[in-house]
Amino acid sequence: MTIIFTHLDGDGVCCAALIKMIPKYQDAYVYFTHPAGLKHDLSSISGDDIVICDIAIDLRKQQSIYALLEQFSNEFSVIYIDHHAQPDGMPTNVVNIHDQNVSATELVYRFFYDQLPSWADHIALLGAICDYLDNSPLMQRLVHHYERRTLFLDAGFLAQGLKKLGRRGHYEKLRNLVQEFSSGKVPSDIKELTQAAIAATKADNKKRPKILEQYVSEKNIAWIQDPPSMSHSKIAHWILGNSGKHIGLVIRTLNSKRQLVDITIRGWRKLDLRTFIPAIAMKMGGSAGGHANAVGCRIPQKNLKLFLRILDGHEVFNGIEPVPSVEELIPLKPN
Ligand SMILES: [Mn+2]
How far, in Å, is the centroid of ligand 1 from the Cα of 134? Predict the structure, then answer.
């Protein structure tokens, strides 16, 4: 049997659904995991072919993960498909499909393209949209196979519905969802998903005005600390848009480790956030990872103020155009 290890977000679910469309993998078992849990979850299996999708390699566990993959790949097929930063040293017998510019779903779609049904492009698009990575040449080409508004409605049902269904402990429901998608259904066919999505969207819309009253604007950045519990990336987008600053940050004090904070950062795609934020986080005694426009950091709480000050004063912001204000873009010239 094959085991598919994947992430429990929209991108990860679509990766697994695509793979299970292939006859060879239709009985594969889907194991939902995350970077910090991958080593533990890999240790719990034996004697299977594996495909791992959309899971970043946690630097602190890199050596033991690579050792396990090496051991498995000497005897079984091991395919690693991912789009997060990847440390060197992936064992040579592992088929390593890696590109940081596109979604994991797109990589799965392209790797298995010859074995997929023609309608797999629909699920490929949904996974890419859920990870904000539908701007690649292939996805831009495929968008025209469908109708944009309908496509985004389905992607919205998936991303928002997973706010509830994607919680840990709902693994059986998620496996059913993967099964439905791999048999030709889309999110709008699945009542439990659409209902959860509508409830989540209503709750988000209700929280938005309150959150917009609470954030702090600096010269180049806008940030909020310990907002009501909901998607941090969504809050980061809201305060980014509302403030018109270059980046938006959501800071959360960890419940289990009060001396640490997690920071979710989003920008306008004019800057590659990886080129300067991880270095600052490391200087503060923390760590960081992510994509060009989506970075997460964990740093000691005591260095938070300094981190924000260094970031706000960073020279990288001097070299880019300011974000235009809405008012600048409003005026019309009558003909
Ligand atoms: Mn992803």
Answer: 12
